[in-house]
Write a structure and sequence with these properties.
Distance between the termini of chain A: 24 Å
CATH architecture of chain A: Sandwich
Largest interface: A-B, 47 and 47 residues
Helix content of chain A: under 10%
CATH class of chain A: Mainly Beta
CATH superfamily of chain A: Ureidoglycolate hydrolase
CATH topology of chain A: Jelly Rolls
Oligomer: homodimer
Order of helices and strands of chain A: EEEEEEEEEEEEEEE
Number of domains of chain A: 1
Amino acid sequence: MGNPQPPRWTLNSEPLTAAGFMGFGDVIDTNRPDLATLINQGYAERFGDLARIDTAHAGGRPMISIYRAGPCALPLRLRLLERHRWGSQAFIPLNRQVFLVIVVPPDAEPQLDRLRAFRTAPGQGVNLARGVWHHPLVALEAGDYLVIERAAPDLAVDCDEQSVPSEVWVER
Amino acid sequence: MGNPQPPRWTLNSEPLTAAGFMGFGDVIDTNRPDLATLINQGYAERFGDLARIDTAHAGGRPMISIYRAGPCALPLRLRLLERHRWGSQAFIPLNRQVFLVIVVPPDAEPQLDRLRAFRTAPGQGVNLARGVWHHPLVALEAGDYLVIERAAPDLAVDCDEQSVPSEVWVER
């Protein structure tokens, strides 16, 4: 569990940026207009190839779902982290609703002293790289999310869970 | 080109439903609550596995982009159809904006007498099956779309185009 932690501590969210999220996965947004190209006879712009969808391990395939999430109130006590060892997992809000992305770098066990909380701006989604420990989706507003994750051919569940032994709160 | 067509004719859109869209691909929506399952300790619902993402042909991978499309005015004259022979292509609106999906069943050449126009309801997306002839995205409101399509390892372009020889209009 890394450095010893006090029995109770708080974490504040930071704005989600591609630079800050490096090592955790991809930010899916339109914040790089320099990468946009005109398509369809100039009628649309494409912000291309925004995420590394990593679902092919051992015969896996990309699975598309919609998650309908209720809102979470802050401060929020973190009780559980999970990771998917064999696949990436993308969350894209379908109504520009904002959410928190709470992550720890990939490791055998989550190093709680390396917890980070990112707050999305309207229109931003994320793609968690495989192996990244993360809290289940923390929606700050109710809404639907498109989720792109790995389905295994035998529907084997790829989810490790780890309870959070200390009292950790996300304040804002 | 199938049956001879009059030099000018019009097409009206119909509401997008899974049954009507059969053979063209998948409707991505939450209209089947009977298929939803509770996840994340009851805090979210998952509408699972809504689309067949078909991008693996010849070393292909799923590519995630955002298309920013301007609005199209109706009536609209159709001038061009295209198809992607080796991959599916999904369009999911990111702000519940509505759009038209104009398609022809897969065939060597588009059979214009089999043209269909589907109008989405707010919150609906589609996944075009590979090989389906379709008009480029017809957004009725400006907005962003998440697009999931195939990228080939050599970035070979998989797009056949066919001009529409008759004067075909989508009226509404």
